[in-house]
Amino acid sequence: MRRILSISLIYLLGFVLSLSAQVETRTGISGTVTDPSGGVVSAASVTLRNQDTGATWQTVTGTTGFYSFPSIPPGTYALRRNT
Questions:
Q1: How would you class 67 by CB atoms within 10 Å of its CB: exposed for 0-12, middle for 13-18, buried for 19 or more?
Q2: In CATH, what number is assigned to the domain containing residue 60?
Q3: Which residues contact 67 (CB under 8 A, 6 or more apart)?
Q4: What does the DSSP assignment read for the chain?
Q5: Is 51 a member of any domain?
Q6: Among 20, 55, 66, 69, who pairs with 50 as Cys (CB 3.0-4.6 Å)?
Q7: 69 located within any domain
Q8: Residue 3: inside a domain, yes or no?
Q9: Residue 37, Ramachandran bin (φ over 0: left; ψ between -120 and 50: alpha; else beta)
Q10: CB–CB of 80/46 below 8 Å?
Q11: Other C-beta atoms within 10 Å of 82: how many?
Q12: In a domain, 1, yes or no
């Protein structure tokens, strides 16, 4: 019985370790949209595009011009304000 329990625990530990290895790292990007004079731009549409995968995310700035993409995979991105 002890041997079976030990083997079961080893398999369970291996399963848990394999799950932890599959956790995807996430990151975020945030900033403020301003006009040429430095004033904030509220309600500006902003698009973030992953240059490797082509995946895109969109958001709209708040009253302070702030935008945030809080949970995106690491990569190389292009950010643009939509007109």
A1: buried
A2: 2.60.40.10
A3: 30, 31, 32, 33, 44, 46, 59, 60, 61
A4: -HHHHHHHHHHHHHHHHHHHTTPPP-EEEEEE-B-TTS-B-TT-EEEEEETTT--EEEEE--TT-EEEEEEE-SS-EEEEE--
A5: yes
A6: 55
A7: yes
A8: no
A9: alpha
A10: yes
A11: 9
A12: no
Asked whether the beta carbons of 76 and 50 are under 8 A apart, the reply is yes
Digit-coded pLDDT (tens) for 7-52: 444 444 454 445 444 556 888 999 999 999 999 999 999 999 999 9
Residue 30, strand partner residues: 68
The tokens describing 28, both together, are 């975020």
pTM above 0.70, yes or no: no
The domain of 72 spans 25-83
Please tell me the total count of domains within the chain.
1
**Owner of token pair 């500006």:** 44
Identify the burial level of 11 via C-beta atoms within 10 angstroms of its C-beta, where 0-12 means exposed, 13-18 middle and 19 or more buried: exposed
Residue listed under structure tokens 């009253």: 63
